[in-house]
Amino acid sequence: MAMQSGLEPYVLFEERHRIAEELHDRIGPHLFGIACAVHSAQQDVDCMTDEQLREQLRAIQESAIAASRELRAAIYGLSLSEKGGLSWIGSVESLLATQARLNGVRIRFRAPDSDRRLSVHHQKALYRIISEAVGNAIRHGACTIVEVKLTMRRSAVTLRISDNGTGFDERTGQPRPKNSGFGLGNMKALASSLGGNLQIDSSIGEGTRIVVRLPLDEAHDGTGPN
């Protein structure tokens, strides 16, 4: 009983940490999109047709349903396969499609046919980086186009994200506000935790380009290079 009692605080901490990550990664983007879509509708309602307004409301409803579904998954710890067989690449496509629709931006996503060579840790890290980078491009960069490209080789996976937004001064982080969410520093730490690196190329008025390179474990190389 003493051993079980000692483990309980650790288990609770791990579970709280997992749920916090799930809330940030999978529900935060939906809530952000809903807030932006509502604000846009409020600003443009006088010049929107009835059909445009209905379409906006449908998009908001779909995102709210998705957020509710992700909330249940986070609470009960469901894996991607337990949520109806949606692949990791499929979940990224769904996230980006929702962000594009709710925020009125174009998001191009290119990825390999299979994500089987990515470990769970790679999937979580890349998902968080994509979510935060795209969110920052929309929220702080005021972009209209975002390009996300994922490529995999025998020994590494590379993620490239670029946007046509306002950009920022890499030395100071300006003009982005200090409370810019998950943050560039944390994205770099995520990449570093998997033995990789994250590079940023940005300047005011020139958009932002992010390149993430992560080494792949040979144990996940079940089908050869993609």
UniProtKB/TrEMBL annotation:
Residues 89-218 form the Histidine kinase domain. It catalyses: ATP + protein L-histidine = ADP + protein N-phospho-L-histidine. Its EC number is 2.7.13.3. It is an enzyme of class 2 (transferase). GO terms for cellular component: cytoplasm; membrane. It comes from the Bacteria. It is found in: Cytoplasm. Its main location: cytoplasm. Its cofactor is [4Fe-4S] cluster. GO terms for molecular function: 4 iron, 4 sulfur cluster binding; ATP binding; metal ion binding; phosphorelay sensor kinase activity; protein dimerization activity. Keywords: 4Fe-4S, ATP-binding, Cytoplasm, Iron, Iron-sulfur, Kinase, Metal-binding, Nucleotide-binding, Phosphoprotein, Transferase, Two-component regulatory system. Member of the two-component regulatory system NreB/NreC involved in the control of dissimilatory nitrate/nitrite reduction in response to oxygen. NreB functions as a direct oxygen sensor histidine kinase which is autophosphorylated, in the absence of oxygen, probably at the conserved histidine residue, and transfers its phosphate group probably to a conserved aspartate residue of NreC. NreB/NreC activates the expression of the nitrate (narGHJI) and nitrite (nir) reductase operons, as well as the putative nitrate transporter gene narT. This is Oxygen sensor histidine kinase NreB. It comes from Cohnella zeiphila.
